[in-house]
Structure to design on (287 residues):
């Protein structure tokens, strides 16, 4: 006489057979039966890791798979939750890093805010490591809820929020002129003066609402610091070494037009919005 096996029981059995250890995701009405099947089995090797939203779940699984080299499973409910996973799934097809000391990032501009939730997956994969996250303030505002998971799962992840109050990379791509130095003898990288004043300043829509990033831990748990210069940064780094068992968020305040050396070469080029003509934007004939 055959034994009836439910779809949920079959999925659990197959995940156990292929060595799955973690399921990341957000519970929903269509996934409840499957998740309950796992929770009700005290002998299962699979654990459920809840996330604050589907995008965070996808990035968390991505980080886990890259560092552990193991299968990462995401479970969300049918509907908009599944659609929210599209960017993380595409990004997960990227490079694989499975080394004692690794650097994990989204190599393509697929989903702003990747690193904060991905670090939780990295921590699950490398329990003896301490993930350090370096994220811009614009990206952090996209997925800051992931810090709740950092605390909830008792991690020691450290997040450095590079806070310059703008979407810097977006501004740089379309118009790097506001970042160019005024006091340089090199005409190729010197700030240009356009007839249209908009091209000489940071675009208003790239200005961010100013957050006290270090205070997010007051709401979700952890420890926060603020640094405004190198001496303060040195002091905070020393304090972090004395706090090996708690998650931390560091608000690193930097000048608005500070730019990494790696992309200063764009100063000599012309941004998408830059035109020698004083007519801006340019006329585009109808298709």
């Amino acid at each position: 006489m055959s034994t009836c096996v439910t779809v949920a029981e079959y999925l659990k059995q197959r995940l156990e057979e292929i060595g799955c250890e973690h399921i990341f995701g957000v519970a929903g009405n269509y996934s409840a039966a499957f998740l309950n099947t796992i929770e009700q089995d005290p002998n299962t090797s699979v654990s459920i890791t809840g996330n604050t939203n589907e995008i965070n779940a996808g990035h968390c699984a991505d980080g886990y798979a890259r560092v552990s080299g193991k299968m990462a499973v995401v479970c969300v409910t049918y509907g908009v939750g599944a659609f929210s996973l599209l960017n993380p799934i595409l990004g997960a097809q990227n490079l694989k890093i499975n080394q004692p000391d690794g650097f994990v990032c989204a190599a393509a501009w697929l989903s702003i805010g990747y690193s904060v939730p991905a670090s939780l997956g990295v921590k699950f994969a490398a329990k003896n490591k301490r993930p350090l996250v370096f994220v811009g303030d614009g990206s952090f505002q996209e997925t800051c809820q992931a810090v709740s998971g950092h605390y909830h799962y008792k991690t020691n992840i450290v997040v450095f929020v590079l806070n310059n109050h703008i979407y810097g990379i977006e501004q740089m791509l379309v118009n790097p002129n506001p970042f160019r130095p005024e006091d340089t003898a090199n005409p190729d990288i010197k700030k240009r003066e356009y007839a249209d004043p908009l091209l000489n300043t940071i675009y208003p829509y790239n200005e961010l609402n100013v957050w006290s990033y270090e205070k997010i831990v007051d709401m979700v748990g952890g420890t926060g610091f603020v640094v405004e210069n190198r001496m303060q940064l040195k002091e905070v780094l020393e304090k972090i070494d004395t706090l090996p068992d708690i998650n931390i968020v560091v608000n690193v305040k930097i000048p608005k037009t500070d730019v990494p050396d790696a992309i200063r070469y764009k100063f000599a080029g012309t941004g998408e919005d830059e035109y020698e003509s004083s007519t801006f934007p340019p006329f585009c004939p109808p298709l």
Notes: Residues 91 and 110 are 6 Å apart (CA to CA).
